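Annotated sample (chain length 120).
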Amino acid sequence: MRLSPLVTPLLVGLGLAALALAARSLVLTQIGARARRGGTDSLQVLHRALRLPSLLWSAVLGVYAGTEVATLPARLTSRLELLLHALIIVSVTVTAANLVAALVTRFGERRTLAVGVTGL
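Output written by the structure step:
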């Protein structure tokens, strides 16, 4: 029995996304546990900053793996890969900006700066 050409890419994509989500869960659990055990404020900020973008990264990894094993036209594959790269770049940039903003705000609160901390 021959499988549909979409089944293999779908299974590969879902499988890799599931593995990435499991790794994400493990990492976030470890960071959260260390933050609760008296870790620094930075660990709490990191935990909050990584929760949402790591979901996107897991999904992008699954889609990317699915497109690698799929038999798609080269033009479509290159455009899809460009879109996935753009999503990763934007999500990493936003995550880094939020992380730095949260750390600067925490620093400002600890040092009781006379001037309020504003956004980027």
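Annotation: The chain has a mean pLDDT of 83.
Annotation: The two ends are 58 Å apart (CA to CA).
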